[in-house]
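pinging the channel bc i need a second pair of eyes. not urgent but kinda urgent?? the chain im working w is below, pasted from the shared doc
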Amino acid sequence: MMRLITTPLRRSARLLCLASTLLAPAAWADSYTDFQQASTRLEALMAAATADSDLPRLADPAVAALFAHVADAPRLFQAPVAALQDMDRSVAVCERATNLGKAYYAFGLQRPLPLSGAALQQARREQVTRNLANYGDEMAALFAFGVHCHAHLTGLMEAEFSTQPAQDVSGAERMRARAFSKGSSTMFANVVQFVQVPFWNVAQKKTMLAAAAQHATVNASLMAPPLRERLLSSLPVADQDLDPALAAALATIRQALSVTTCTGLCQYY
């Protein structure tokens, strides 16, 4: 009797394991669709927010579930997603996530106020301060995702340019490589410097700096020397009252910025 019971159970267990194995690649491959659907939903929630209501917060489990798809860069960019081997579609992903982060940062800034001049500027600064205090977790997650996303774009560009010798790359293509490099490295520099703005907590800083440190080498190689030097000289400000949790990431970024050799796309311009 025991054999009659356990044999079907064993068979069912084997079938469940097999099903899990078969479904895992599909789940990875669908990460692009998950990102698009979750982004659409998050954009709709943000569009529905009014001056008297909050933007979607990670403290809400439903919003956290959306961020699990919108801001999970490793899941998205390590998956074998055909759409993300296309430069235009990948650029659209980066822009979409960055725009969500900017929307949190700029929430309420377009609201008409009966002010002008210095008083209006002060009111806008106070609104940004409130946004950083209220939505720092959301912004940190989205801006960190942006760093990962631009690193993905850089990989696509480098793969494209590596298919021909550097001396055969046309002037127009060299200009395209240079424009792309300038945009990506500036975005990286902005994130590193943005961390130094007051009101970020340590966890938020760590989220952004961890992403920046992971891709520091590739971004430093994209930078024109003056930009690299300016960013490097700004890092002592970040070291003031440094929390130990941030030290390793900042050291990695500093080391990457100190290297002056040219690797990757910089050889094409």
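so Residues 95 and 207 are 19 Å apart (CA to CA). and Residues 1-29 have pLDDT under 50 and may be disordered. — does that match what u expected or am i reading it wrong
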